[in-house]
Amino acid sequence: MFTKVLIANRGEIAVRITRACHELGIAVVAVYSEIDRNALHVRMADEAISIGPAPANESYLNIDRILDAARRSGAQAIHPGYGFLSENASFARAVRDAGIRFIGPSPEAIQAMGDKAMARDRMQAAGVPVVPGYQASDDEADLEKAAVGLGFPLLAKAAAGGGGKGMRVVFEEGELHSSIAAARREALHAFGDSRMILERYVPQAHHVEFQLLGDEHGNLVHLFERECSVQRRHQKVIEESPSPLLNEALRAEIGAAALLAGREIGYHNAGTVEFIVDPQTQEYFFLEMNTRLQVEHPVTELVAGLDLVHWQIRIAAGQPLDFSQADLVQRGHAIQSRLYAEDPANGFLPATGPVLRFVEPEGPGIRVDSGIANGAEITIHYDPLIAKVIAHAQDRPAAVRRMQSALRDAVLLGVRTNWQFLQDVLAHPDFKAGRVYTTWVEENFEDWQPPDCILPPEVLVAAALTQYQTPFGASPNGQTGPTLDDPFSPWRIANGFRLGE
Amino acid sequence: MTAMHYRYRYRDQIFEIHLERIGDGYRAVLDEIPYEVEVLDIQPGQISLRFDGRPVNLYWAVDEENRWVSLQGCTYQLQKPVLDRARNTGVQASENLVRAPMPAQVRSLEVAVGDPVERGETLLLLEAMKMEIRIRAPRDGRIAGIKVSAGSTVNRGEVLVELEP
Predict the structure, then answer these.
(1) Which of A182, A206, A245, A338 has a CA positioned 20 to 30 A from the CA of residue B163?
(2) Bridge partner residues of A134 (DSSP)
(3) How confident is the model over A379-417, as pLDDT tens digits?
(4) Contact (Cβ atoms closer than 8 angstroms) between residue B42 and residue B51
(5) Helices A248-264 and A116-126: crossing angle, nearest 10°?
């Protein structure tokens, strides 16, 4: 087993991985950009190395600086987390070439799944169902001919794509030309590659993904599915396991297809095979494979009853899985809500600012993965994810209620969040019935605005009572000033008329 | 009898509250309705009250402009009341000024001073938290001034581009 691991990431996932390392008796080397020098992941680490200025491409995406930090600290392995360099095959290769273990799959596996067009071909050849589509040629005339053959609606998307960029739904032949042109422009801008592929568009599709875990000795299992159909602008918001859509037979069938996909590329470590499932026909199609740990991995951990990050590290250290597929069962139901720093009243644009106060919900069956401490600053440089709240209970209705209750107990002051939006999704009859598909949020919450809360008198009274002690701008964290010992002192001053200071 | 008056802005509405010390507690008056209040505990960031006989627990924090109070999962952002004069100039000038909708980094400028622009035309691209934000012209006009450059960081509400009146 390793004695020292470098975590090439920040935020909640760096904190999560640090905990796993410490539980396994492994020392942690954190890396940080200038703006993160006082961040929670830095404070929890055993060593911390500065790797450059705030912009990610000068720090967390800088391969040379991260490798240099690993060499200087003597780390035997690097965990990339998710995002940043986690699916960068050149990084995985550079780590290997430096004689350091990469906690993840091989560079070859990352590369095989990194190009969507190549991955789709390979999966199809291996017998994994893929969405009927066309990718033989990028020539305009060929694409148009193929589109007519596939039928409408269809999806034109970037061969090098991801995250919904460079993607258009084409409803009829007349829109084809302009939609492809627009998708190409976007793809070129986002990925530097304008190649297009076509796919049949599955309406009201559910996003169902299977967690794979494989060791370097040929053992590969799946840890069941996650349903991630609650998405806003292709960003997952609420994830759960099991999927309310799957029955035993369909679960076994898609699980077998996921294993087939993993075996085809000799996959080891943790990875996720994403499918879309047609709720009408129960057809399922391979979408893509994420060759890394995912943001929503906690729901799988709770339902499958094992620690994915522990296993990632053990696998990278050469240990074999000590269980088989037959040993795995799904226990209860888990749901995760992503708390984002964003302003629903301002078009869900990311919100920034200091976290003045953060009180995590707690209680039986509640887990919170967060990377911030009171006083942390949410900046423009990184992902707006503040925390993940995960609820686990015996069944889906109980897990939903537990989540609603946990979100009511959470307090985050200083930055606007999507809290109310999460509550409204959880309370929606479609969500309760498990009938949510990937475009459901767009169709049902298009003009959603936070409800006009009536200001309760208690809130105004509390504001006034706290104001004397702590005027506006006094200090962060709601720290009180020198008059803390006498909260009633304003009353010694004659008739004040304080205009909100 | 001494009384304290406080004013807050919440969602563009001004709220006024009067507090009066009565014995060990307070009498609060809001919209002419009186409430009996007792402070059970006050801590940095947290305050517990007995409010008309009911126990109530609230979290709070302050920054330059806001007093944040959280009650039963709902967070209320109470702002300092803004002087009417300042608000009026803001409204008037907004016709000619294009402001940043959020804090961001300027990725690129798509227009130059003197350029004629049409309503909806992209003026510049901002980037924040991996998202690209297109800033478009609010009306037809001509660019009178550009207040930022590529790579610079802007705050929410900061003027990016000025249109000729």
Answers:
(1) A182
(2) A198
(3) 999 989 999 999 999 999 999 999 999 999 999 999 999
(4) no
(5) 110
Beta bridge partners of A6: A29, A78
| A471 pLDDT tier (thresholds 50, 70, 90) | confident
Over range A493-499, report the average pLDDT.
Answer: 36
Q: What's the first-to-final CA gap in chain B, in angstroms?
A: 54
Which residues of chain A does B77 touch, with a Cβ-Cβ cutoff of 8 Å? 416
Q: What value does the mean pLDDT of chain B take?
A: 85
Round to whole Å and give the CA distance between A285 and A274: 9
Query: How far is residue A70's CA from residue A266's CA, in Å, rounded to a whole number?
Result: 27
Residue whose token pair is 């010390």: B21
pLDDT reported for residue B84: 45
In chain B, which residues have their Cβ closer than 8 Å to the Cβ of A455? 10, 15, 76
- Specify the pLDDT at position A325: 97
Q: 3-state class of A40 per DSSP?
A: helix
- Report pLDDT digits (tens) over A10-45: 999 999 999 999 999 999 999 999 999 999 999 999
On the question of pLDDT at B90 being above 70, the answer is no
Lowest mean pLDDT among A156-165, A225-234, A290-299, A372-381: A156-165
Handedness of CA A272, A277, A283, A285 (dihedral sign): negative
Q: Mean pLDDT throughout A326-333?
A: 98
- Average model confidence (pLDDT) across chain A: 91
Contact of B17 with chain A, judged by CB distance below 8 Å, is answered with: yes
E strands, A82-121, where? 101-102
Is B41 near chain A, with CB under 8 Å? no
Strands A77-79 and A47-50: unpaired
Q: Which residues contact A279 (CB under 8 A, 6 or more apart)?
A: A204, A205, A206, A245, A435, A437
Give the whole-angstrom CA distance, residue A16 versus residue A424.
Answer: 28
In three-state form (DSSP H/G/I as H, E/B as E, the rest C), the secondary structure along A312-325 is: HHHHHCCCCCCCCH
B29 touches A at CB < 8 Å: no
Chain A and chain B share a number of CB contacts under 8 A equal to: 198
CB contact under 8 A, A413 and B60: yes
Q: Would you say B25 and A491 are in contact if contact means Cβ atoms under 8 Å apart?
A: no
Q: What distance in Å separates the CA atoms of residue A170 and residue A180, rounded to the nearest whole number?
A: 9
Where are the strands (E) in A66-184, listed by range?
77-79, 101-102, 133-134, 154-162, 165-170
Q: What average pLDDT does the segment A463-474 reach?
A: 78
Tell how strand A366-370 and strand B104-109 pair up.
unpaired
What are the φ/ψ torsions at residue A14 (nearest 5 degrees)?
-65, -40
φ, ψ of residue B30 to 5 degrees: the values are -135, 125
Dihedral of CA atoms B9, B15, B16, B21 in degrees, nearest 10, equals -100
Instruction: Give me the mean pLDDT over the A213-235 stretch.
Output: 96
Residue B66, strand partner residues: B79
Is residue A363 within 8 angstroms of chain B, CB to CB? Answer: no
Residue A224, sorted as left (phi over 0), alpha (psi -120 to 50) or beta, turns out to be left
Residue with tokens 């006094």: A474
